[in-house]
Task: inverse folding
């Protein structure tokens, strides 16, 4: 079974030894709300609460990205909340994504693009 946002949060919460009530208190949310998230009965919380989750759960960059991706997967037809604002606020990003879609770029092509960016072969 594929991991869900709620399962991810519960796993990380338990790894940190934080009980559900304490997590709810730290996020200023109701314990029932957190329970509903962990059980897949609610979608992810607001972006500010998501950032607070990163902080409270001590997530590293990869875990943070995984959390955001899982949140997006749990919501049909959405982009991960940490990148949606970036995409919305940058015309060139939208153009690039549409071009990639029109060219039907697959995972291998995207991995090559990412590698070029990481190696400094970008246009900065």
Result:
């Amino acid at each position: 079974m594929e991991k869900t946002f709620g399962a991810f949060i519960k796993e990380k919460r338990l790894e940190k030894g934080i009980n559900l009530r304490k997590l709810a208190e730290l996020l200023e949310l109701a314990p029932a709300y957190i329970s509903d998230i962990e059980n897949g009965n609610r979608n992810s919380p607001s972006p500010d609460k998501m950032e607070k989750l990163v902080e409270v759960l001590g997530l590293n960059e990869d875990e943070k990205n995984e959390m955001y991706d899982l949140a997006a997967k749990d919501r049909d037809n959405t982009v991960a909340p940490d990148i949606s604002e970036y995409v919305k606020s940058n015309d060139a990003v939208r153009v690039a994504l549409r071009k990639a879609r029109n060219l039907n770029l697959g995972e291998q092509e995207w991995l090559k693009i990412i590698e070029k960016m990481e190696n400094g072969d970008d246009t900065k």
